[in-house]
Write a structure and sequence with these properties.
By secondary structure, the chain is α+β, with helices and mostly antiparallel strands. It is built from 33 helices and 28 strands. 41% of the residues are buried. The structure holds a DNA duplex (16 and 16 nucleotides). It catalyses: DNA(n) + a 2'-deoxyribonucleoside 5'-triphosphate = DNA(n+1) + diphosphate.
Length: 959
DNA sequence: ACAGGTCTATTGTAAC
DNA sequence: GTTACAATAGACCTGT
């Protein structure tokens, strides 16, 4: 039998690390392996039925090891806990007895306080393990990098402290004697370890350079010494890379895959080359050089490795608050946590409650299969909660970084638990557990690239409610009273629902989101806690840095890349508020067109990056002789060597287009495999779509304006060239935007000519995207309505489709669209127009008569900043927000304000304060007008031309 | 002083 | 990341 999770090793390690004090305590009662493993983390083991579940009791000896509480609670009560879940039926029938029961001491004790403490402070160190690498941390007290691995054989997370002797360092062009001569002899620094002479390839200078590696014992010393060295006029490199990242890059680790760690070796266990893998890769990359094909084979093994399945637990806490609308401040944690719910991936759910005078159970049933416990002592409750959470390798929260974790941590301090017994680590911008990993879904779903490319902009607000509504089709439990005033049944129901939603957001659709995270970790080479908290530019940075290290390339400094930027021809006129020129949007016609085909360039920008060898070191590099000029902007792209960005982007693009898009739809594969491949291709899509954007963003460490500028310039050239060719071929292009062309009723063979031309001339793939049976153009850019051959309706950019358009307009507009969808041939136009006219007349009258509800009149607009930060002017939604704030409601950045337009002087009112009689119909007529006009314009008529409307308007105005 | 007009800037949302 | 649109705020001008 296998050693379980290296637990034996863990014991050894503990002995060596423990202080005398801790050893002594363990002497009291040795925690058995079983105690530790008995947690719910073992997915296979069936859970005991709730009635058999018995919590360990009592906690009277707690005081021996933990300091006295601040005296807020009477000792006799604070240290005792009631009989748990098994009794909750009794509470139901005799709620009046809750108090009596809570004071009843339990007859049995299974776990002493020492065990509780031990479990809280113990760290699962191992010397060897076979497990999935999930993250790397830096442990300050050890002064070492620590691998966090999930061991599937024990179902738990283990830690492995570095034994490879890796140390923090940075690079400089100064030799040790130069530093001495310049009076910055860093070797006297207390953290200094040694100088190493290293040779690296400089990607811009295109030659090997000899550098001094200043090795230190402490990552903080890097920052300190870097300042010294650079202020003496020397160049420094790679000094701003976080140490735990440096460790991953240097050891060439791939988070998210299975490793065997032991001794000083960290070896991945990727599946050996599958027979057909070589064949597939050779086929896809047959035109690439040998090294690229070899790289591709390694990538393939990473993508093909199945994702880990690990036990997850989601949790959420509810805190008492005297002011219903305000959450207590986690930095002071002044009020008690009254409830905490957990839901795990094996289907188990628990709620722990704090006993409060006068707050009782009601008749209603409790959620099925849920273990409920009431505590007299908040401290015991929180410690138990943390203990349970820490048994899982991965804890999930919604906003845990900014609320739940800091609150619990601070609250435990307030309750007299010393910091070292509360295994929560509050980092600079996030919070986690000492022994578990933590994902905050609020941060994860706030990553814009995911929002847009992975979730198709389905949710707008970053709240648990709106995200789960959009992705799971269900929301939070609706409350009629503030959390602090709920009876216990409702509190349990509400709290638990939040925990369950949180869990489900990660696990729905066969672990879609979790698997996506794993895939992104593997690609970016960053740990799970980094990936889930950083924007895509950091993901790409991880991948690029890792790749630089693999090639033994020096990672250039911002300044070095910046220099190439100014070396460029730079002819483009400076555009106001913009850094560079973007894409072309063709002027659309006004009218209705039948049989319009849409062609688009498959991943235009990434393809251009690949085809044109665009990378920070290939554009405007003076160390390259053989260059080719980018039209319009005049940047010169190197042809002598292959760039790093385009190689990576090109590889991901090819994998996606040629392999994984197909695999995700391959019916011969098992459902689970297909879903995985869909995740793989989605992750690649996120990457390649962002690959162009990051070069134009200062936040990206390899920021290169010439690259971004060249991409868009080439995009324009390609679109223009294709347009010209279309004219030659007598194709009628009606519209186009960035990478698409709308062609009116083309002969089929001519279309093929165009596709061939694009392939030949630009090496790009032009694909048929859609065929519209009919399409309406309003004459506005990015604004059309089409009906495809299959009868699907495609609406782009129209006012009626925008999220800030009142609901009734959307409803009425979609009725109009239904009428329109009958449109098949030109002869239908007249009849349909007549029908539309009727409908619009009705709508007009309905608005004037206000037949809609207040909610339907609501305009929903997001606050892009906190209300007080609007200093230039005060938009309507901000005015409405301020009215709400006067009532004590706090509104902040990211919140959506619902308001109606009113007749009073201010002109707006939040829906919460408005009545239907406040609504100004005249202002809504204007709104309706713009919405429908975008449809009517295609028919060649304007709003005023709709007969009757004008008459009615006058009539109503006159009266 | 102020109503009503023009013009520009700000803001939010969407397409790509 | 840029391009594009709608709605509106606020500055400025003009006529009374």
């Amino acid at each position: 039998m296998r050693v379980r999770g290296g637990q034996e090793a863990a014991q050894d390690k503990e002995t060596s690390l423990d202080s005398d004090e801790e050893r002594g305590r363990r002497g009291l009662r040795q925690t058995t392996l079983l105690d530790y493993m008995a947690g719910p983390a073992k997915p296979k083991k069936p859970e005991p039925p709730p009635t058999l579940h018995r919590e360990r009791e009592p906690e009277s000896k707690y005081q021996n090891t933990l300091p006295e509480t601040t005296g807020k609670e009477p000792a006799s009560m604070s240290l005792r806990r009631n009989q748990p879940s098994s009794k909750h039926e009794e509470y139901n029938s005799e709620s009046g007895d809750v108090r009596g029961l809570t004071l009843e001491p339990s007859p049995q004790s299974e776990l002493s306080d020492d065990d509780v403490i031990l479990e809280l402070v113990r760290e699962p160190w191992v010397e060897s393990v076979r497990g999935y690498l999930l993250d790397v941390r830096y442990d300050g007290s050890l002064g070492k990098a620590v691998l966090m691995l999930y061991d599937p054989s024990s179902g738990s997370l283990v830690k492995w402290a570095d034994r490879t002797g890796h140390k923090p360092y940075f690079l400089t062009d100064a030799r040790p004697e130069d530093l001495r001569a310049a009076g910055v002899d860093v070797s006297h620094d207390e953290s200094f370890l040694q100088y190493d002479l290293v040779e690296k390839f400089h990607p811009i200078d295109r030659k090997l350079v000899k550098l001094t590696k200043i090795v230190v014992s402490d990552p903080l010393a890097v920052r300190r010494l870097r300042e010294k060295v650079s202020s003496a006029g020397f160049s420094v490199w790679e000094a701003d890379i976080k140490y735990h990242h440096n460790y991953i890059f240097d050891r060439q680790l791939i988070p998210g895959i299975l490793y065997e760690v032991g001794g000083v070796r960290i070896v991945h266990t990727l599946p050996l080359e599958m027979d057909d893998a070589t064949r597939i890769v050779d086929e896809i990359f047959r035109e690439e050089p040998r090294e690229v094909r070899e790289r591709a084979r390694e990538w393939l093994r990473i993508f093909e490795a199945p994702p880990p399945k690990l036990p997850l637990i989601a949790f959420d806490i509810e805190v008492y608050s005297p002011i219903a609308t305000r959450l207590p401040d986690p930095s002071t944690a002044p009020y008690p946590v009254i409830s905490a719910a957990t839901a795990d991936s094996s289907g188990r759910s628990r709620v722990v409650l704090l006993y409060r005078d006068g707050v009782e159970f009601t008749e209603g049933a409790l959620p099925e299969g849920t273990e409920v416990e009431i505590y007299d002592s908040e401290r015991a409750m929180l410690l138990d909660l943390v203990r349970i959470l820490q048994r899982y390798p991965l804890v999930v929260s919604f906003n845990g970084d900014n609320f739940d974790l800091p609150y619990i941590a601070r609250r435990l301090e307030v309750l007299g638990v010393p910091r070292e017994f509360a295994p929560i680590e509050l980092k600079q911008d996030y919070a986690t557990f000492r022994r578990s990993l933590h994902i905050d879904l609020h941060k994860l779903f706030g990553i814009r690239a995911l929002q847009v490319y992975a979730f198709g902009n389905k949710y707008r607000e970053l709240s648990l409610e709106s995200i789960s509504r959009a992705l799971l089709g269900k929301g939070k439990v609706e409350l009629k009273a503030p959390v602090s005033e709920l009876n216990l049944n409702k509190l349990i129901e509400y709290n638990l629902q939040d925990a369950r939603l949180t869990l489900e957001l990660l696990t729905f659709s066969n672990n879609l989101v979790f698997n996506l995270i794993i895939m992104v970790m593997r690609t970016s080479k960053l740990g799970i806690e980094d990936i889930t908290r950083s924007q895509i530019s950091n993901w790409i940075r991880g991948l690029m840095y890792w790749e630089h290290r693999r090639r033994r390339w020096l990672i250039p400094s911002r300044g070095e890349i910046e220099k190439l930027s100014s070396a460029g021809a730079r002819v483009g006129a400076i555009i106001k508020d913009k850094k560079y020129r973007g894409a072309i949007v063709l002027d659309p016609p006004v009218g209705i067109f039948f049989r319009v085909l849409v062609l688009d360039f498959a991943s235009l920008y990434p393809s251009l990056i690949k085809q044109w060898n665009l990378s920070y070191e290939t554009v405007n590099n003076p160390n390259c002789r053989d260059t080719i000029e980018v039209p319009e902007v005049g940047h010169r792209v190197c042809r002598e060597f292959k760039g790093i960005s385009n190689e990576i982007v090109g590889m991901l693009r090819d994998f996606r287009v040629r392999l994984y898009k197909k695999k995700s739809k391959d019916k011969s594969l098992r459902e689970e495999e297909r879903l995985w491949y869909d995740v793989v291709q989605s992750a690649m899509k996120v990457y390649i779509n962002a690959s162009y954007g990051v070069f134009g963003s200062e936040k990206f460490s390899l920021y290169s304006l010439p690259v971004a500028e060249s991409v868009t310039a080439l995009g324009r050239a390609v679109l223009r060239g294709t347009l010209e060719k279309s004219r030659e071929l007598n194709l009628h292009i009606v519209y186009g935007d960035t990478d698409s062309l709308f062609i009116w009723d083309p002969p089929k063979d001519v279309l093929n000519d165009l596709v061939d031309y694009v392939e030949r001339t630009y090496g790009l793939e032009l694909e048929l995207d859609k065929v519209f049976r009919a399409i309406l153009f309003s004459g506005l850019k990015k604004n059309y309505l089409g009906i495809t051959e299959e009868g699907d309706i495609v609406i782009k950019g129209m006012v009626a489709k925008k999220s800030n358009t009142p609901e009734f307009i959307k409803d009425e507009f979609s009725k109009a669209v239904k009428i329109l969808s009958k449109l098949e041939k030109p002869e239908d136009v007249e009849a349909i127009l007549a029908e539309l006219r009727d409908h619009i007349n009705t709508v007009y009258n309905n608005v004037k008569k206000k037949v809609y509800t207040l909610d339907q009149f609501a305009i929903k607009v997001m606050l892009s900043k906190n209300p007080r930060e609007y200093d230039k002017n005060t938009p309507q939604h901000v005015k409405a927000a301020m009215l709400l704030q006067r009532l004590g409601l706090t509104l902040s950045r990211g919140d959506i304000v619902y308001y109606v337009k009113t007749r009073d002087k201010l002109g707006v009112k939040p829906v919460q304060l408005a009545r239907l009689s406040d609504v100004d119909p005249g202002k809504y007529v204007e709104h309706v007008k713009t919405a429908f006009e975008q449809m009517l314009m295609a028919f060649g008529i304007s709003w005023d031309d709709i007969s009757g409307v004008r008459k009615l308007d006058r009539l109503l105005f006159d009266s």
